[in-house]
Amino acid sequence: MKLKQIFLTVAISFLSAFLGLAVYQKLFDKPQMIIEGTRQDVPIRYSKFSDNNGLGETMDFTKAATTAVPAVVHIKTKISLNKKNRNPGEDELFGPRLWPYLIPEQRASGSGVIVSDDGYIVTNNHVISDEAGGVANEINVTLSNKTSYKARVIGRSETDDIAVLKIDAKNLPYMIFGNSDLLQTGQWVLAVGYPLNLEATVTAGIVSATGRSISMRNNQVKNEEDKHQYIQTDAAVNSGNSGGALVDTDGNLVGITAAIMSPTGIYAGYSFAVPVNTVRKAVKEIIQMGGFRKAND
Q: What is the pLDDT of residue 49?
């Protein structure tokens, strides 16, 4: 009798435990999520990019921008009211007669790059020239810290579209010349300047091509080619960027922005810069010799 009671007690205990386990699994134990196609020993990570997850490194342009912006200046020019003579043709009574006419005052702006701590500035020749090829009557330079100076022209080269200005200042931030021969297609670059009369502006792009042959007039690209070679980029450039800096990701000057390819006169996808190796040579000659070197001289 006692043996039956023992067996009955054990059976009831097992049954109670089984029922309790079944109720717990039903109410509390949730099924695990199975990720198809993965192994249990492979860590699952979020797709968010992180420098520390081994997926690669970010492109950070702050070093280059911080280096370039203080050394890039805003150039504003003024060409005074000018009187010209024109010949309307023969006069029946008095023969040829010259009639004066007025060219209104012109104002323009562009960019420039400080290349020495004592105030030498590189820009495009077309930034400081009038339509007749002469030099603007007034050239004012404003630094990124809003300090303004009157600038004088040391010399200019129409051939390279490069001009050198000088302001009376000391201990200025300036840019280091890089080596444009080392540029490669696909390399990141920054364009720094003062487009559309805005404050200092930085845009990023890649080198689309090197050794691009183009011909320019008044900052517009013509179809016929010449012997000059330019850096082509897709960094956004607009009117006012001319004379500004093209820099690599280390903040070295690799070109001087010169033109855009556009049917409308505003940015349409491609810009061009004079390679810094050409700029370096032109600057050296201009500082040593001064004057004005015309195209094809």
A: 44
What is each CA distance from 115 to 4, 87, 158, 226, in whole angstroms? Answer: 106, 46, 20, 28
* Residues designated catalytic: 126, 161, 242
Topology agreement, domain 67-83+101-173 and domain 180-284:
yes
Please give the pLDDT value at position 265.
Answer: 73
- Say whether domain 180-284 belongs to CATH 2.40.10.10: yes
Q: Which of 84, 129, 78, 121 is nearest to 102 (CA)?
A: 84
pLDDT of residue 52: 47
**One-letter amino acid of 297:** D
Delimit the domains of the chain by residue range.
Answer: 67-83+101-173, 180-284
Regions in the chain scoring below 50 on pLDDT = 31-40, 42, 44-56, 90-94, 218-226
Q: Which CATH superfamily is domain 67-83+101-173 in?
A: Trypsin-like serine proteases (2.40.10.10)
Provide DSSP, 172-203: ---PPB--GGG--TT-EEEEEE-GGG-SSEEE
